[in-house]
């Protein structure tokens, strides 16, 4: 890869030189991940239970019951993980999720189904990006395993919520899912990186030319 694209090779080499974090520590993104998962648990557990009771169709009731059960298990897992690493989890829902809970609770019948499915599907889409980022980038093996577990649950829930037939994307709720941005080090090369890459590229090109000429000369003897 370094020969084909020196700049990329240097970027990957630079990342490889960074010391790996100890398995027993949490990076800032790992902590954010645990916090966000707990925020999700604190409103999706009661909303799942409410949907299981109030949904106007059997599908909505079944989806609500499954979401409630899954997030209840996830709540136990995230609390255990946070306790192990000494991370303080939030104790009450965020202002945004509290307003969503109030909105869903105020609805009845099909309007309840729609608010429940829309709000939870949009929320799952938002956290999906963070989970993928942690799964791909964390250096903590336990966090990676937990992110994989959370990833499977979120994918499952998005599909379940869509199966209700009440999820629509024409009102802006899904814009939050695309709001998160990530800066990748390999795409942020400095001028010095580019200069070194150019020099390395020229050296490699020169070496290749010498090798080709050497074998050509031998072949003509």
**Mean pLDDT across every amino acid position:** 78
Q: Which structural class is indicated by helix and strand composition?
A: mainly alpha
Number of domains: 2
Distance between the termini: 34 Å
Name of the CATH homologous superfamily of the largest domain: Ferritin, core subunit, four-helix bundle
Explain briefly what this protein structure is:
By secondary structure, this protein is mainly α.
Describe it for me?
The chain has 221 residues and is an all-alpha fold. It folds into 2 domains: 160 residues, Ferritin (Up-down Bundle), CATH 1.20.1260; 34 residues. 72% of the residues lie in helices and 0% in strands. It is built from 7 helices and no strands. Helix 3 runs antiparallel to helix 6 and helix 4 packs antiparallel against helix 5. The chain is elongated, with a radius of gyration of 25 Å. The chain starts with 5 loop residues before the first helix and ends with a helix.
């Amino acid at each position: 890869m370094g020969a084909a694209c020196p700049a990329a090779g240097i970027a990957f080499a630079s990342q490889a030189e960074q010391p790996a974090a100890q398995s027993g520590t949490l990076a800032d993104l790992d902590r954010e991940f645990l916090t966000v998962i707990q925020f999700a648990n604190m409103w999706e557990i009661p909303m799942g239970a409410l949907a299981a009771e109030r949904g106007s169709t059997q599908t909505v009731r079944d989806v609500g019951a499954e979401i409630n059960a899954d997030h209840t298990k996830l709540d136990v897992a995230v609390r255990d993980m946070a306790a192990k690493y000494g991370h303080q989890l939030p104790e009450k829902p965020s202002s945004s999720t509290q307003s969503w809970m109030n909105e869903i609770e105020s609805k009845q019948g099909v309007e309840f189904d729609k608010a429940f499915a829309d709000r939870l599907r949009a929320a799952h889409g938002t956290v999906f990006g963070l989970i993928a980022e942690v799964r791909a980038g964390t250096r903590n093996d336990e966090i990676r395993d937990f992110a994989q577990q959370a990833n499977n649950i979120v994918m499952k829930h998005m599909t379940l919520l869509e199966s209700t037939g009440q999820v629509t994307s024409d009102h802006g709720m899904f814009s939050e899912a695309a709001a998160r941005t990530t800066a990748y080090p390999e795409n942020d090369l400095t001028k010095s990186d580019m200069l070194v890459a150019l020099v390395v590229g020229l050296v490699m090109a020169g070496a290749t030319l010498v090798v080709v000429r050497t074998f050509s000369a031998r072949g003509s003897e």
